[in-house]
């Protein structure tokens, strides 16, 4: 009995470790070929603070051209080309650079991609995005970004479509009530009234 319990426990640990490793693999940055950048930005009325930390393994300075795109799961994308500036020594090794980027108001930032173009092999360590509508998020890179490819992390979840509308069954038909009698209409006499009228007619005939 104890041997069986120990075996089940080991299997559970192995399964948990496998699931954790899979989750970590999914969180690692990756290159994407089908990523579409909205070069024509929507009307932007939100300002984001983006802090990019350069890895200490990167060169002292870089001439690479660096762009960024991030957004939420609802199509709100913020795109900023050419964050680099060799004259101000942006993206130096072991340094952090902050940028204010204007764009459409997103809800929860769930993806970020960097684009590097150049031969210096700039290496980002992390990207932190402070949004006015959600909590700050930080994405770890810790690896050299490939040249001429969008590279990053996507944690967006696809939301299921709403349930199809099903109209409720119709209520049983009830005819509307009869309209009230008008003032010029005579009331129908009751049984007592009919007897009185017939009695008057008979008295007149006799």
Automatic annotation (TrEMBL):
Lineage of producing organism: Eukaryota, Viridiplantae, Streptophyta, Embryophyta, Tracheophyta
Domain of life: Eukaryota
Key word NADP present: no
Ranges where the record places region Disordered: 165-185
CDD domains in alphabetical order: PLAT (cd00113)
Keywords: Signal
Protein name (database record): Embryo-specific protein ATS3A
Pro residues composition-biased segments: 165-180
